[in-house]
Amino acid sequence: MRIEVRSQTEGEVVLRVAGWADNPALVRVLREEVECWLEQGRRVVLDLEQLKAISPEGLALIHRWQGKPVELRRMPMLIASLVELLHGRQGLQVPPIRGLETTLQALPEAC
């Protein structure tokens, strides 16, 4: 996983997260990076377009950011779908998932 500062102002930092956040150690690195910026009073925007995978710990981390000045941008559809299904969008700035409800309705019902 790579975390790169794309831009920053006095009140906001945009971080690009790329690669695989698929184990607890990598998720901890992401948490520490975001917390560092939040402690400085910055709003954190995470550009997740190049994120390939995220672990359950990563999904839990996103859930913990609810109500904090963290925005998730350009999230891959699969990851966005998981976030919305597991945690909803309450308190997080998560882009809406177009077509998710239609896709879910088309799935066969579980036994």
Strand content: 25-35%
- What is the string of SSEs from the N terminus onward? EEHEEHEHH
Q: Percent helix among the residues?
A: 25-40%
Q: Number of helical segments?
A: 4
Give a quick account of the main beta sheet: strands, pairing sense, barrel closure. Answer: 5 strands, mixed
Number of domains: 1
Per CATH, the superfamily is STAS domain
Outline: globular
Could you please say which CATH topology applies here?
Transcription Regulator spoIIAA
Question: How many beta-strand elements?
Answer: 5
Radius of gyration: 14 Å
Structural class: alpha/beta
Average the pLDDT over all residues and give the rounded result.
83
Short descriptors:
single chain; 111 residues; 5-stranded mixed β-sheet; 27% strand
